[in-house]
Amino acid sequence: MRKILALIASLLATAGMLVSCLESEEIELSSHAYIASFSINDIKTKVPAKTNDGRDTTIVKTTYGKYYTFAINHVTGEVYNVDSLPKGTDVTHVTAEINIGGSYVYYYQDEEAKYFSSKDSIDFTNPVRFTVYAADGSGSRNYHIRLNVHQSDMETLAWTPVENNNFHGGRMTAEKMVQLRDHLMVFGEMGGVPTVMGGKLDGNFRFAKKEWPLKGVVGQVDYSSIVAHENAVYLLADGKLYSSIEGVNWTAESPEHTFDRMLGVADGKLYLSEGGMIVACDPYEWTTDNRVETLTHNWQTVQTVDETLLPVNPSMVTLPLRTNANILRTVLIGNPHADAGDDVSIWTKLSTDPVWTYYNPVAGNDKACPLLERLTVIGYDNKLYAFGGASKDGSVEAFEAIYLSADGGITWRKQKKDIVLPEELKGYSEPFACVVDTEENIWIVCSDGLMFRGRIGG
Fold first, then answer.
1. Rounded Cα–Cα distance for residues 62 and 45 (Å)
2. Who wins on pLDDT, 358 or 152?
Protein backbone atom coordinates (compact mmCIF):
# COMPACT_ATOMS: atom_id res chain seq x y z
CA MET A 1 0.00 0.00 0.00
CA ARG A 2 2.89 2.39 0.73
CA LYS A 3 4.12 1.82 -2.81
CA ILE A 4 0.68 2.72 -4.18
CA LEU A 5 0.47 5.92 -2.10
CA ALA A 6 3.97 6.88 -3.15
CA LEU A 7 3.12 6.37 -6.79
CA ILE A 8 -0.08 8.40 -6.47
CA ALA A 9 1.81 11.20 -4.80
CA SER A 10 4.42 11.12 -7.56
CA LEU A 11 1.76 11.27 -10.27
CA LEU A 12 0.00 14.19 -8.59
CA ALA A 13 3.28 16.04 -8.19
CA THR A 14 4.07 15.48 -11.86
CA ALA A 15 0.61 16.75 -12.80
CA GLY A 16 1.19 19.87 -10.66
CA MET A 17 4.53 20.55 -12.29
CA LEU A 18 2.99 20.14 -15.71
CA VAL A 19 0.29 22.70 -14.93
CA SER A 20 2.79 25.18 -13.51
CA CYS A 21 5.06 24.83 -16.52
CA LEU A 22 2.21 25.45 -18.89
CA GLU A 23 0.68 28.47 -17.17
CA SER A 24 -0.80 29.70 -20.43
CA GLU A 25 -2.76 26.46 -20.91
CA GLU A 26 -5.36 24.81 -18.71
CA ILE A 27 -5.13 21.01 -18.47
CA GLU A 28 -8.11 19.34 -16.81
CA LEU A 29 -7.48 15.78 -15.72
CA SER A 30 -10.38 13.35 -15.76
CA SER A 31 -12.10 12.17 -12.57
CA HIS A 32 -13.34 8.96 -14.27
CA ALA A 33 -12.40 5.61 -12.76
CA TYR A 34 -14.01 2.52 -14.30
CA ILE A 35 -13.35 -0.64 -16.30
CA ALA A 36 -14.62 -0.18 -19.86
CA SER A 37 -13.87 -3.72 -21.07
CA PHE A 38 -12.17 -6.89 -19.91
CA SER A 39 -11.02 -9.94 -21.85
CA ILE A 40 -8.75 -12.92 -21.39
CA ASN A 41 -6.18 -14.43 -23.71
CA ASP A 42 -6.02 -18.09 -24.70
CA ILE A 43 -5.67 -20.57 -21.83
CA LYS A 44 -5.31 -24.33 -21.51
CA THR A 45 -7.98 -26.92 -20.70
CA LYS A 46 -7.32 -30.51 -19.63
CA VAL A 47 -9.74 -32.91 -21.32
CA PRO A 48 -10.18 -36.62 -20.42
CA ALA A 49 -9.35 -38.95 -23.31
CA LYS A 50 -8.46 -42.52 -24.17
CA THR A 51 -5.22 -43.92 -25.55
CA ASN A 52 -5.25 -46.23 -28.56
CA ASP A 53 -5.20 -49.23 -26.25
CA GLY A 54 -8.14 -47.92 -24.20
CA ARG A 55 -6.30 -46.50 -21.18
CA ASP A 56 -7.50 -43.27 -19.54
CA THR A 57 -5.37 -40.24 -20.21
CA THR A 58 -5.58 -36.46 -20.43
CA ILE A 59 -4.96 -34.19 -23.36
CA VAL A 60 -4.53 -30.43 -23.26
CA LYS A 61 -6.62 -28.23 -25.55
CA THR A 62 -6.56 -24.49 -26.08
CA THR A 63 -9.58 -22.51 -24.87
CA TYR A 64 -9.79 -19.37 -26.99
CA GLY A 65 -10.40 -16.37 -24.76
CA LYS A 66 -11.78 -14.23 -27.57
CA TYR A 67 -14.94 -16.34 -27.61
CA TYR A 68 -15.88 -15.41 -24.03
CA THR A 69 -17.79 -12.20 -23.34
CA PHE A 70 -17.43 -10.50 -19.96
CA ALA A 71 -20.26 -8.63 -18.27
CA ILE A 72 -19.40 -5.53 -16.22
CA ASN A 73 -21.73 -4.37 -13.46
CA HIS A 74 -20.60 -0.90 -12.44
CA VAL A 75 -23.10 -0.79 -9.57
CA THR A 76 -21.99 -3.94 -7.77
CA GLY A 77 -18.44 -3.87 -9.08
CA GLU A 78 -18.69 -7.38 -10.54
CA VAL A 79 -16.99 -8.53 -13.75
CA TYR A 80 -17.52 -12.11 -14.97
CA ASN A 81 -17.70 -14.27 -18.08
CA VAL A 82 -21.32 -14.91 -19.08
CA ASP A 83 -20.48 -18.33 -20.55
CA SER A 84 -18.51 -20.57 -18.21
CA LEU A 85 -15.15 -21.89 -19.33
CA PRO A 86 -14.96 -25.66 -19.96
CA LYS A 87 -14.39 -28.01 -17.06
CA GLY A 88 -10.67 -28.53 -16.51
CA THR A 89 -9.61 -25.04 -17.63
CA ASP A 90 -6.50 -23.86 -15.79
CA VAL A 91 -7.26 -20.39 -14.42
CA THR A 92 -4.15 -20.16 -12.23
CA HIS A 93 -2.05 -18.47 -14.93
CA VAL A 94 -4.21 -16.14 -16.99
CA THR A 95 -3.20 -13.07 -18.95
CA ALA A 96 -5.85 -10.45 -19.58
CA GLU A 97 -6.56 -7.20 -21.37
CA ILE A 98 -8.30 -4.27 -19.63
CA ASN A 99 -9.51 -0.98 -21.05
CA ILE A 100 -10.20 1.61 -18.38
CA GLY A 101 -11.56 5.09 -17.92
CA GLY A 102 -8.85 6.38 -15.61
CA SER A 103 -5.12 6.64 -15.20
CA TYR A 104 -3.97 3.20 -14.04
CA VAL A 105 -5.17 0.00 -12.38
CA TYR A 106 -3.89 -2.25 -9.59
CA TYR A 107 -4.87 -5.80 -8.70
CA TYR A 108 -4.41 -7.72 -5.47
CA GLN A 109 -3.04 -11.22 -4.97
CA ASP A 110 -2.07 -12.68 -1.61
CA GLU A 111 -2.94 -9.26 -0.14
CA GLU A 112 -0.20 -7.70 -2.25
CA ALA A 113 -1.05 -4.83 -4.59
CA LYS A 114 0.47 -5.06 -8.05
CA TYR A 115 0.45 -2.60 -10.91
CA PHE A 116 -1.48 -4.30 -13.75
CA SER A 117 0.25 -5.26 -16.96
CA SER A 118 -1.26 -7.32 -19.78
CA LYS A 119 1.82 -9.54 -19.53
CA ASP A 120 1.05 -10.54 -15.92
CA SER A 121 0.07 -14.13 -15.21
CA ILE A 122 -2.81 -13.87 -12.70
CA ASP A 123 -4.37 -16.57 -10.55
CA PHE A 124 -8.19 -16.41 -10.94
CA THR A 125 -8.95 -19.44 -8.79
CA ASN A 126 -10.85 -16.98 -6.60
CA PRO A 127 -12.26 -13.57 -7.59
CA VAL A 128 -9.51 -10.97 -7.94
CA ARG A 129 -9.91 -7.40 -6.76
CA PHE A 130 -8.94 -4.68 -9.24
CA THR A 131 -8.82 -0.97 -8.39
CA VAL A 132 -8.99 1.74 -11.05
CA TYR A 133 -7.63 5.19 -10.13
CA ALA A 134 -8.82 8.48 -11.62
CA ALA A 135 -6.29 10.61 -13.46
CA ASP A 136 -6.94 13.67 -11.29
CA GLY A 137 -6.41 11.68 -8.09
CA SER A 138 -9.94 12.40 -6.88
CA GLY A 139 -10.91 8.81 -6.29
CA SER A 140 -10.92 5.18 -7.33
CA ARG A 141 -13.33 2.31 -7.95
CA ASN A 142 -13.02 -1.34 -6.96
CA TYR A 143 -14.08 -4.31 -9.10
CA HIS A 144 -14.01 -8.03 -8.36
CA ILE A 145 -13.30 -10.06 -11.47
CA ARG A 146 -14.10 -13.78 -11.51
CA LEU A 147 -13.71 -16.49 -14.10
CA ASN A 148 -16.62 -18.92 -14.13
CA VAL A 149 -15.61 -22.51 -14.89
CA HIS A 150 -18.01 -25.41 -15.37
CA GLN A 151 -17.73 -27.87 -12.50
CA SER A 152 -19.02 -30.68 -14.70
CA ASP A 153 -18.60 -31.59 -18.34
CA MET A 154 -21.23 -29.41 -20.03
CA GLU A 155 -20.52 -31.11 -23.35
CA THR A 156 -22.28 -34.29 -22.24
CA LEU A 157 -26.00 -35.02 -22.13
CA ALA A 158 -26.59 -38.15 -20.08
CA TRP A 159 -29.93 -39.99 -20.26
CA THR A 160 -31.37 -42.46 -17.77
CA PRO A 161 -34.39 -44.63 -18.61
CA VAL A 162 -37.16 -44.31 -16.01
CA GLU A 163 -38.24 -47.91 -15.54
CA ASN A 164 -41.56 -49.06 -14.05
CA ASN A 165 -42.94 -45.54 -14.25
CA ASN A 166 -46.60 -46.65 -14.39
CA PHE A 167 -47.26 -44.40 -17.37
CA HIS A 168 -49.98 -46.10 -19.40
CA GLY A 169 -48.13 -46.04 -22.66
CA GLY A 170 -50.02 -47.55 -25.57
CA ARG A 171 -53.35 -46.57 -24.00
CA MET A 172 -52.74 -42.87 -23.36
CA THR A 173 -51.06 -40.44 -25.70
CA ALA A 174 -48.38 -38.11 -24.35
CA GLU A 175 -49.18 -34.67 -25.73
CA LYS A 176 -47.92 -32.14 -23.16
CA MET A 177 -45.93 -32.28 -19.92
CA VAL A 178 -45.66 -29.50 -17.31
CA GLN A 179 -44.35 -29.15 -13.77
CA LEU A 180 -46.88 -28.01 -11.18
CA ARG A 181 -45.25 -27.42 -7.82
CA ASP A 182 -43.49 -30.72 -6.97
CA HIS A 183 -45.32 -32.86 -9.54
CA LEU A 184 -44.92 -33.64 -13.21
CA MET A 185 -48.19 -33.84 -15.12
CA VAL A 186 -48.72 -35.42 -18.53
CA PHE A 187 -51.79 -34.55 -20.59
CA GLY A 188 -53.14 -36.54 -23.50
CA GLU A 189 -56.07 -38.71 -24.49
CA MET A 190 -57.21 -42.15 -23.44
CA GLY A 191 -59.92 -43.61 -25.62
CA GLY A 192 -60.63 -40.16 -27.02
CA VAL A 193 -61.12 -38.67 -23.53
CA PRO A 194 -58.85 -35.78 -22.40
CA THR A 195 -56.84 -37.24 -19.53
CA VAL A 196 -54.07 -36.34 -17.07
CA MET A 197 -51.55 -38.45 -15.17
CA GLY A 198 -49.24 -37.11 -12.47
CA GLY A 199 -46.18 -38.15 -10.53
CA LYS A 200 -44.13 -36.64 -7.74
CA LEU A 201 -40.63 -35.41 -8.44
CA ASP A 202 -38.29 -37.37 -6.21
CA GLY A 203 -35.45 -39.83 -6.49
CA ASN A 204 -37.88 -42.70 -7.14
CA PHE A 205 -40.14 -40.92 -9.61
CA ARG A 206 -43.35 -42.80 -10.37
CA PHE A 207 -46.56 -41.78 -12.04
CA ALA A 208 -49.75 -42.37 -10.15
CA LYS A 209 -51.31 -45.67 -11.13
CA LYS A 210 -54.55 -43.91 -12.00
CA GLU A 211 -55.40 -41.46 -14.72
CA TRP A 212 -58.06 -38.76 -14.38
CA PRO A 213 -60.36 -37.26 -17.04
CA LEU A 214 -60.33 -33.47 -17.28
CA LYS A 215 -63.54 -32.45 -15.51
CA GLY A 216 -65.30 -29.23 -16.50
CA VAL A 217 -63.59 -28.82 -19.88
CA VAL A 218 -66.01 -28.44 -22.79
CA GLY A 219 -64.84 -28.85 -26.38
CA GLN A 220 -61.68 -29.99 -28.13
CA VAL A 221 -58.57 -29.50 -25.98
CA ASP A 222 -55.60 -27.79 -27.63
CA TYR A 223 -52.84 -29.75 -25.90
CA SER A 224 -50.12 -27.45 -27.17
CA SER A 225 -51.80 -24.66 -25.16
CA ILE A 226 -51.28 -26.27 -21.74
CA VAL A 227 -48.97 -24.24 -19.47
CA ALA A 228 -48.28 -24.03 -15.75
CA HIS A 229 -48.27 -20.57 -14.20
CA GLU A 230 -48.71 -19.13 -10.70
CA ASN A 231 -49.45 -22.54 -9.11
CA ALA A 232 -52.17 -23.34 -11.65
CA VAL A 233 -52.45 -25.00 -15.04
CA TYR A 234 -54.14 -23.40 -18.04
CA LEU A 235 -55.44 -24.70 -21.36
CA LEU A 236 -57.60 -23.74 -24.30
CA ALA A 237 -60.57 -25.81 -25.49
CA ASP A 238 -62.47 -24.53 -28.52
CA GLY A 239 -60.76 -21.19 -27.90
CA LYS A 240 -61.99 -20.87 -24.30
CA LEU A 241 -59.57 -20.50 -21.40
CA TYR A 242 -59.71 -22.94 -18.48
CA SER A 243 -57.67 -23.15 -15.28
CA SER A 244 -57.04 -25.81 -12.65
CA ILE A 245 -55.02 -25.95 -9.44
CA GLU A 246 -54.40 -29.72 -9.65
CA GLY A 247 -54.98 -30.61 -13.29
CA VAL A 248 -58.22 -32.58 -12.80
CA ASN A 249 -61.03 -30.12 -12.02
CA TRP A 250 -61.19 -27.18 -14.43
CA THR A 251 -62.91 -23.80 -14.33
CA ALA A 252 -63.82 -21.65 -17.34
CA GLU A 253 -62.09 -18.24 -17.25
CA SER A 254 -62.94 -15.00 -19.07
CA PRO A 255 -65.91 -16.41 -21.03
CA GLU A 256 -66.18 -13.15 -22.98
CA HIS A 257 -62.91 -14.01 -24.77
CA THR A 258 -62.33 -16.55 -27.55
CA PHE A 259 -58.63 -17.07 -28.13
CA ASP A 260 -56.80 -18.34 -31.20
CA ARG A 261 -53.87 -19.89 -29.36
CA MET A 262 -51.87 -19.92 -26.14
CA LEU A 263 -48.40 -18.47 -26.66
CA GLY A 264 -46.91 -19.12 -23.23
CA VAL A 265 -45.73 -17.49 -20.02
CA ALA A 266 -43.29 -14.58 -19.72
CA ASP A 267 -42.85 -11.55 -17.47
CA GLY A 268 -45.22 -13.19 -14.96
CA LYS A 269 -48.06 -13.08 -17.49
CA LEU A 270 -49.99 -15.39 -19.77
CA TYR A 271 -49.65 -14.43 -23.43
CA LEU A 272 -52.34 -15.47 -25.93
CA SER A 273 -53.47 -14.39 -29.38
CA GLU A 274 -57.00 -13.18 -30.03
CA GLY A 275 -58.32 -11.83 -33.31
CA GLY A 276 -55.00 -10.62 -34.70
CA MET A 277 -53.76 -9.27 -31.37
CA ILE A 278 -51.33 -10.50 -28.73
CA VAL A 279 -53.00 -10.12 -25.35
CA ALA A 280 -51.60 -10.61 -21.87
CA CYS A 281 -53.13 -11.50 -18.54
CA ASP A 282 -51.67 -10.48 -15.20
CA PRO A 283 -51.56 -13.02 -12.37
CA TYR A 284 -54.78 -13.65 -10.52
CA GLU A 285 -56.22 -10.77 -8.52
CA TRP A 286 -58.82 -11.36 -5.84
CA THR A 287 -61.84 -9.06 -5.56
CA THR A 288 -64.56 -9.22 -2.94
CA ASP A 289 -68.23 -8.65 -3.74
CA ASN A 290 -70.81 -9.25 -0.99
CA ARG A 291 -68.12 -11.05 1.01
CA VAL A 292 -67.59 -13.56 -1.83
CA GLU A 293 -64.05 -13.72 -3.18
CA THR A 294 -63.90 -13.87 -6.96
CA LEU A 295 -60.96 -14.35 -9.29
CA THR A 296 -60.56 -11.65 -11.91
CA HIS A 297 -58.14 -11.11 -14.75
CA ASN A 298 -56.59 -7.86 -15.87
CA TRP A 299 -56.31 -8.27 -19.64
CA GLN A 300 -54.27 -5.93 -21.78
CA THR A 301 -53.66 -5.67 -25.50
CA VAL A 302 -49.93 -5.87 -26.17
CA GLN A 303 -49.82 -5.35 -29.94
CA THR A 304 -51.55 -6.05 -33.23
CA VAL A 305 -49.93 -8.79 -35.30
CA ASP A 306 -50.32 -10.79 -38.48
CA GLU A 307 -51.83 -13.99 -37.07
CA THR A 308 -50.19 -16.12 -39.77
CA LEU A 309 -46.73 -15.16 -38.48
CA LEU A 310 -47.37 -16.57 -35.01
CA PRO A 311 -46.02 -20.10 -34.43
CA VAL A 312 -48.13 -23.23 -34.25
CA ASN A 313 -47.55 -25.53 -31.24
CA PRO A 314 -45.17 -22.92 -29.79
CA SER A 315 -42.46 -23.23 -27.18
CA MET A 316 -41.77 -20.19 -25.01
CA VAL A 317 -38.40 -20.04 -23.25
CA THR A 318 -37.06 -17.28 -20.99
CA LEU A 319 -33.33 -16.91 -20.31
CA PRO A 320 -31.17 -14.10 -18.87
CA LEU A 321 -29.20 -11.97 -21.29
CA ARG A 322 -25.63 -13.11 -21.68
CA THR A 323 -24.36 -9.63 -20.86
CA ASN A 324 -26.86 -8.59 -18.18
CA ALA A 325 -28.50 -11.23 -16.01
CA ASN A 326 -31.02 -8.67 -14.74
CA ILE A 327 -32.64 -8.48 -18.19
CA LEU A 328 -34.53 -11.52 -19.47
CA ARG A 329 -35.00 -12.52 -23.10
CA THR A 330 -38.05 -14.61 -23.96
CA VAL A 331 -38.06 -16.54 -27.23
CA LEU A 332 -41.36 -17.72 -28.74
CA ILE A 333 -40.68 -20.39 -31.33
CA GLY A 334 -42.60 -23.04 -33.23
CA ASN A 335 -43.57 -24.41 -36.61
CA PRO A 336 -45.05 -21.86 -39.03
CA HIS A 337 -48.68 -21.30 -39.93
CA ALA A 338 -49.73 -23.12 -43.11
CA ASP A 339 -49.76 -19.78 -44.97
CA ALA A 340 -46.38 -18.57 -43.70
CA GLY A 341 -43.90 -20.64 -45.69
CA ASP A 342 -41.34 -23.20 -44.57
CA ASP A 343 -39.32 -21.24 -42.00
CA VAL A 344 -39.66 -21.78 -38.26
CA SER A 345 -41.53 -18.85 -36.69
CA ILE A 346 -39.49 -17.00 -34.07
CA TRP A 347 -40.47 -14.02 -31.93
CA THR A 348 -38.49 -12.44 -29.12
CA LYS A 349 -39.07 -9.99 -26.28
CA LEU A 350 -36.82 -8.47 -23.63
CA SER A 351 -38.24 -7.95 -20.16
CA THR A 352 -37.55 -4.23 -20.69
CA ASP A 353 -39.53 -4.10 -23.96
CA PRO A 354 -43.29 -3.50 -24.17
CA VAL A 355 -43.84 -5.53 -27.36
CA TRP A 356 -42.61 -8.60 -29.25
CA THR A 357 -40.31 -8.59 -32.29
CA TYR A 358 -40.59 -11.02 -35.19
CA TYR A 359 -37.42 -12.52 -36.67
CA ASN A 360 -37.80 -12.19 -40.42
CA PRO A 361 -36.41 -15.33 -42.10
CA VAL A 362 -33.17 -14.81 -44.00
CA ALA A 363 -33.11 -16.35 -47.46
CA GLY A 364 -30.50 -19.08 -47.78
CA ASN A 365 -29.73 -19.20 -44.04
CA ASP A 366 -28.08 -22.62 -43.66
CA LYS A 367 -27.95 -22.18 -39.87
CA ALA A 368 -31.70 -21.75 -39.35
CA CYS A 369 -33.63 -24.01 -37.01
CA PRO A 370 -34.83 -27.03 -39.03
CA LEU A 371 -38.54 -27.44 -39.57
CA LEU A 372 -39.24 -30.57 -37.47
CA GLU A 373 -42.51 -32.32 -36.77
CA ARG A 374 -43.64 -31.53 -33.19
CA LEU A 375 -40.72 -29.11 -32.81
CA THR A 376 -39.77 -28.83 -29.12
CA VAL A 377 -37.47 -26.13 -27.74
CA ILE A 378 -36.11 -26.01 -24.17
CA GLY A 379 -33.78 -23.65 -22.33
CA TYR A 380 -30.69 -24.99 -20.58
CA ASP A 381 -27.39 -23.43 -19.45
CA ASN A 382 -28.49 -20.10 -20.99
CA LYS A 383 -28.89 -21.70 -24.42
CA LEU A 384 -31.76 -23.01 -26.54
CA TYR A 385 -31.98 -26.67 -27.52
CA ALA A 386 -34.36 -27.91 -30.24
CA PHE A 387 -35.38 -31.39 -31.34
CA GLY A 388 -38.41 -33.24 -32.63
CA GLY A 389 -39.70 -35.62 -35.24
CA ALA A 390 -38.67 -35.90 -38.86
CA SER A 391 -38.02 -32.76 -40.88
CA LYS A 392 -40.52 -31.60 -43.46
CA ASP A 393 -38.04 -32.06 -46.31
CA GLY A 394 -37.09 -35.56 -45.15
CA SER A 395 -33.43 -34.71 -44.59
CA VAL A 396 -33.61 -35.29 -40.81
CA GLU A 397 -34.90 -38.47 -39.20
CA ALA A 398 -37.14 -38.26 -36.14
CA PHE A 399 -35.07 -37.71 -32.97
CA GLU A 400 -31.93 -37.74 -35.07
CA ALA A 401 -30.19 -34.80 -33.44
CA ILE A 402 -30.36 -31.85 -31.07
CA TYR A 403 -29.80 -28.32 -32.37
CA LEU A 404 -28.29 -25.57 -30.20
CA SER A 405 -28.65 -21.80 -30.37
CA ALA A 406 -26.58 -19.45 -28.22
CA ASP A 407 -27.85 -16.22 -29.78
CA GLY A 408 -31.55 -16.27 -28.95
CA GLY A 409 -32.68 -18.45 -31.84
CA ILE A 410 -31.03 -16.69 -34.80
CA THR A 411 -28.50 -19.41 -35.65
CA TRP A 412 -28.52 -23.11 -34.77
CA ARG A 413 -25.80 -25.77 -34.72
CA LYS A 414 -26.40 -29.49 -35.01
CA GLN A 415 -24.90 -31.19 -31.96
CA LYS A 416 -22.76 -34.28 -32.30
CA LYS A 417 -20.94 -36.77 -30.10
CA ASP A 418 -22.15 -36.35 -26.53
CA ILE A 419 -25.12 -33.96 -26.90
CA VAL A 420 -27.53 -36.51 -28.34
CA LEU A 421 -30.98 -37.97 -27.73
CA PRO A 422 -31.62 -41.46 -26.36
CA GLU A 423 -30.77 -44.08 -28.96
CA GLU A 424 -34.12 -45.80 -28.33
CA LEU A 425 -35.97 -42.76 -29.73
CA LYS A 426 -34.31 -42.69 -33.15
CA GLY A 427 -37.08 -42.77 -35.72
CA TYR A 428 -39.86 -42.51 -33.11
CA SER A 429 -42.93 -40.96 -34.76
CA GLU A 430 -45.65 -41.12 -32.09
CA PRO A 431 -46.68 -38.25 -29.78
CA PHE A 432 -44.25 -37.35 -26.98
CA ALA A 433 -43.93 -34.68 -24.31
CA CYS A 434 -40.96 -32.91 -22.74
CA VAL A 435 -40.28 -30.53 -19.86
CA VAL A 436 -37.29 -29.18 -17.91
CA ASP A 437 -37.99 -29.22 -14.17
CA THR A 438 -36.76 -26.74 -11.57
CA GLU A 439 -33.81 -29.03 -10.78
CA GLU A 440 -32.67 -28.84 -14.43
CA ASN A 441 -33.65 -32.41 -15.26
CA ILE A 442 -34.94 -32.94 -18.80
CA TRP A 443 -37.91 -35.33 -18.97
CA ILE A 444 -39.20 -37.03 -22.13
CA VAL A 445 -42.22 -39.33 -22.02
CA CYS A 446 -43.52 -41.16 -25.08
CA SER A 447 -46.91 -42.57 -25.93
CA ASP A 448 -45.55 -46.12 -25.97
CA GLY A 449 -44.50 -45.83 -22.32
CA LEU A 450 -40.82 -45.04 -22.77
CA MET A 451 -39.62 -42.37 -20.37
CA PHE A 452 -36.18 -40.77 -19.95
CA ARG A 453 -34.56 -38.32 -17.58
CA GLY A 454 -31.61 -36.35 -18.96
CA ARG A 455 -29.12 -33.85 -17.62
CA ILE A 456 -26.42 -31.82 -19.32
CA GLY A 457 -23.16 -31.99 -17.43
CA GLY A 458 -24.22 -34.87 -15.20
1. 6
2. 358
